[in-house]
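INTERNAL AUDIT FORM
Audit reference: QA-55
Scope: verify that the stored structure record matches its stored sequence.
Auditor: D.O.
Record contents follow.
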Amino acid sequence: MSSDTSDSNSPTTAASAAATTSPAVADALVPARRGLSWLAIAALLLAVLALLMAGLLWQKLDFTQRELARRSQDSATQSAETRSLAVQAEAQAKELQARLAVAEVRLSEVSLQRSQLEELMLTLSRSRDDNLVQDLESALRLAQQQAQLTGSVQPLLVALQSADARIARAAQPRLNPVQRAIARDVQRIRSATVADVPSLVQRLDDLVRRVDQWPVPNEVGPLATASHPKAPVAAKTPARAPSKADARPAAPANTPMPIEPTEPVLSGWDSAVQGWNAFWRKVWEDTTRSGRELVRVSRIDRPEAALLAPEQAFFLRENLKLRLLNARLGLLARQMDAVQDDLKTIETSLIRHFDTAAPDVAAAQQVVAQLRTELAATQLPQPEETLAALTVAAGGR
């Protein structure tokens, strides 16, 4: 701006100077004036061009601003539409998820119905032989349970014989291996040694009833006297001299026996003497028996039996009864190990606290030993070969 002002003021200054100067100087300044005029024109042109460019730039800037405003409005509109579409898409997604859950539930129901229908069709499509195999296997399983409950092999034998009869009536060649397995199992079960549980229980009940009759070594009273009975004393009869009839030879079998002479009738004095003697003999026996009951001398081989008080024998017998009843309950519950322990304890108690020389105690010891021996063979045989043959027959379908 300062250069333009200086340039515009320079012709006036030059004119005033030319007027005041000499003509020679004026002639020298003419070319300089012409150069300055051209410069002013060029500067004016540049200024006009700058104004034009500024106008164009302003117009372009205004257009750009309008375009930006329009595009911003379009972007806002599109953003609003996008948000509404996103909300719709989210709602549709939730609806699709709900439908998918319902479809999965229906699919599971359909799958279950299909499996049930397949099973039903498989059941309906089974042949008579397959049903026979399944019935035989079920009958054998049930017989096994009954054998475990009763402790007897009779249910197994009945089930095997019934299965053999049904297979024989079916007359199917592919069931012949099952029939051979049944024959082997029947033979093996019949040859097996199994304890008869009802008989064992009955023997335990007999022992319980007879406990009160078992004497202890230091027991006194009627029970001890009854447990060691004495030999009966023969009645004393008056001795008579041998007669000729005694020395007479025996008559033949076909000859009649001679009539023996009757004994002579005693007189009144002899009867009185015999009665008097019998009275004093009875008095003597009563007196000596009282003395024998007052003092008793016996031999006890086990010291622990002597330490047992006589009044404690009642509790000893009651405890022994409880042991026997416990063994009975264990036998019914098929707890063979517990029964063996109880019987071992009973056997030890009989040896330690009871008189083993008494017949009742000896018989009880023998019964307990037999029970322990028979309980060792309580393992029931199983029809394993028949079950395996039935499994093969069912799998070969």
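Auditor finding: record pair retrieved intact. Residues 236 and 278 are 10 Å apart (CA to CA).
Action required: none
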